[in-house]
Specification:
The protein is mostly beta strands and 148 residues long. It has two helices and nine strands; from the N terminus they run βββαββαββββ. The longest helix has 7 residues.
């Protein structure tokens, strides 16, 4: 059976949960996920856990913040002007702290930030991954491996 390499296509079930119990994401009761390692579909720390596993393997990992989605980056907390924000929101639906808002990226993609609140004439957004800075439990069952 082929082993997972850094470029493999993998079909798997996985569960991400916080150490104190809340489940963040779980595919075990739904369709499995299929991804290509190295393509940015999965966090690098999670991909490292999959390397050298093979079809049928099931493992659990306790990951520190640096090994999961990385540390929180204070530079990713940004202030946006009310004018810019007005271009991306519906004035009839006011923002509440915790709301997720997507913005167009210069390269044509999209990126998301969590609205934290108002600071004078600016809206404060956190563009860190929501799980950045969090320890996680990662449980995985490999269903299939297509080597690169």
């Amino acid at each position: 059976m082929p082993l997972i390499t850094p470029e493999s296509h993998v079909t798997l079930h996985y569960r991400l949960s916080l150490p104190d119990g809340p489940v963040v994401l779980d595919t075990f009761d739904d369709k499995p996920a299929t991804l290509q390692l190295g393509s940015g579909q999965f966090a690098p720390g999670l991909e490292r856990c999959l390397l050298a596993l093979q079809e049928g393997d099931e493992r659990s990992y306790a990951l520190g913040p640096d090994d999961a989605f990385g540390p929180r980056n204070p530079a990713l907390i940004q202030k946006l002007s009310r004018k810019l924000l007005a271009e991306h929101t519906d004035a009839t639906d006011p923002l509440e702290p915790g709301d997720l808002l997507e913005f167009p990226a210069p390269e044509g993609g999209r990126f998301a930030g969590i609205f934290k609140g108002w600071d004078a004439d600016s809206a404060v957004f956190d563009f860190n991954h929501p799980l950045a800075g969090q320890a996680l439990l990662f449980h995985v069952r490999i269903i299939g491996v297509l080597p690169s």
